[in-house]
UniProtKB/TrEMBL annotation:
It holds the Pfam family Alk_phosphatase. The active site is at S74 (phosphoserine intermediate). Zn(2+) binds at D30, H245, D281, H282, H324. This is Alkaline phosphatase. It comes from Novosphingobium guangzhouense.
Length: 364
C-alpha cells in the first residue's frame, strides 16, 4: 500500500493547478503581420528574430478572415478577437441579425470585465473611435459611425465603461459633441472623466480620457495606465493598439519597434498574474525583396529609395503592395493561460483564451 501511495504521489507531483489571471493585456498590432514583424526587427536590429515578441514562449498562427470576406478589415478582425464572433467587414462588435442591415450587439471581453468590477483601459496611437478600439466598447453596423461610437463610449451597456481612454481624435470629438449642443469637455466630465491631452494625467485619476491629435510617448503612457489600473484588487483588462500599416514603410516599421519596446517594458512591470498577448487584426502587403547582410538594412533601403523612379512598390529592399492581406498572423503569449496559444487557430479563439484566463465562461 505504501508503495502504491508513493507511486500515486509521484505521478501527481508534477500536476499544478492552473493559475487564473488577475489581469489580461492584449497588444494589437494593426496590420502587424509576419512580414511586417520580420522587416521591422531586421530594420531596427540588423538581425532576424530580434524583437521581444520573438522571445514570448507560446506562439500560434491565427486566421483573420471575416464572415463575408477572405480579407478582413479592422472592424471585423477586432470584433472576432473581442467577442468570439465572426462578423462582416466594417461592423464593430455587432453581427447581422435581419434584413435591411439590421445588427445585434455581441458582448465584448471589456464588457465582461466591466460587469465584474474590473478596471479597464484602451490605449491607441490611432483615433479612439476607430474600428479597433471601438470594438472593445461599442456596437455599430458601420465603423465610420463615429457619433454613435462616441455616444456609446460615454453611455456603456455594462459598468461605468472604459476607465482609461488614451488616443487620437480630439478634433473629431469636438465636432461630434458640438452637433449635440455640448462640448467634449462637458460630455466627458458629465460621464465622470478627467479630460485632457497629456497622458501624464492618468497618474492622478482613476477615470481619465486623454484625447489628442498628435503622437505621444508610448512607454510612459502605458506605464501610467498600468499603475492606475492595477490599484483595483479585482484586476484589470487593457487593450493597447499600435498602428503598423506600412503604406509608409519606415513609419509603419518604426511603430513595430515602438510596440515591441512597450511589450518588453510591460513584461517587466505587469506581474506574473498577468496574461500578455500580442496579435494582429490582419496582415498587410509588405515584403522584403532584398538586402545584404553586414550592412544596415535601413541604409540600403534609403539608398534604393533615392534612385530615380523608385516607389514603395518597386523598392528592391522592402516593397509594399498597399492593402490588407489574408494570410494568418502570429499570436504570441506569456503568463497564466498562455499555454492555450498553440497551433493554428481562428481569431475567435483568442476571446475564449482571454475569458478562460480570467476563469469566466461565456454568457448563454
Amino acid at each position: 500500500m505504501a508503495t502504491a501511495a508513493a507511486a500515486l504521489l509521484s505521478g501527481t507531483a508534477g500536476i499544478v493547478q492552473a493559475q487564473e489571471a488577475r489581469n489580461v493585456i492584449i497588444f494589437l498590432g494593426d496590420a502587424g503581420g509576419l512580414p511586417t514583424l520580420n522587416a521591422g526587427g531586421i530594420l531596427a536590429h540588423d538581425k532576424p528574430q530580434s524583437l521581444y515578441i520573438h522571445t514570448m514562449p507560446y506562439v500560434a498562427l491565427s486566421d483573420t478572415s471575416s464572415a463575408n470576406r477572405w480579407v478582413t478589415d479592422s472592424g471585423a478582425g477586432m470584433t472576432a478577437i473581442m467577442t468570439g464572433h465572426k462578423t462582416n467587414n466594417a461592423m464593430v462588435s455587432a453581427i447581422p441579425s435581419g434584413p435591411n442591415g439590421a445588427v445585434s450587439p455581441v458582448k465584448t471581453l471589456l464588457e465582461y470585465a466591466e460587469q465584474r468590477g474590473l478596471s479597464t483601459g484602451v490605449m491607441t496611437n490611432m483615433k479612439i473611435w476607430d474600428a479597433t478600439p471601438a470594438a472593445t466598447y461599442a456596437h455599430v453596423a458601420a465603423r465610420k459611425d463615429k457619433d454613435s461610437i462616441f455616444q456609446q463610449m460615454l453611455k456603456p451597456r455594462f459598468g461605468d465603461g472604459v476607465d482609461i481612454l488614451i488616443g487620437k481624435g480630439r478634433a473629431d470629438a469636438v465636432t461630434s459633441f458640438a452637433a449635440r449642443q455640448t462640448t467634449a469637455e462637458k460630455a466627458f466630465a458629465t460621464a465622470g472623466y478627467r479630460f485632457g491631452e497629456d497622458p501624464a494625467i492618468v497618474r492622478d485619476a482613476a477615470r481619465v480620457a486623454v484625447l489628442r491629435d498628435s503622437d505621444f510617448a508610448p512607454i510612459p503612457a502605458v506605464e501610467a495606465t498600468i499603475a492606475q489600473l492595477a490599484k483595483n484588487p479585482k484586476g484589470y483588462f487593457l487593450m493597447v493598439e499600435w498602428d503598423m500599416h506600412t503604406d509608409d514603410p519606415k513609419k509603419g516599421l518604426r511603430h513595430v519597434v515602438e510596440m515591441d519596446d512597450m511589450i518588453r517594458r510591460v513584461h517587466e512591470i505587469a506581474g506574473k498574474d498577468t496574461l500578455i498577448l500580442f496579435t494582429a487584426d490582419h496582415s498587410f502587403g509588405l515584403r522584403m525583396g532584398g538586402g545584404e547582410r553586414g550592412s544596415p538594412l535601413l541604409q540600403q533601403y534609403d539608398a534604393e529609395a533615392a534612385k530615380p523612379g523608385t516607389t514603395n512598390e518597386s523598392n528592391g529592399v522592402i516593397s509594399v503592395q498597399d492593402g490588407h492581406t489574408g494570410e494568418e498572423v502570429i499570436v504570441a503569449a506569456s503568463g497564466p493561460g498562455a499555454d492555450k496559444v498553440h497551433g493554428f487557430m481562428p481569431n475567435t479563439r483568442l476571446f475564449d483564451i482571454m475569458l478562460s484566463a480570467f476563469g469566466w465562461k461565456r454568457d448563454q
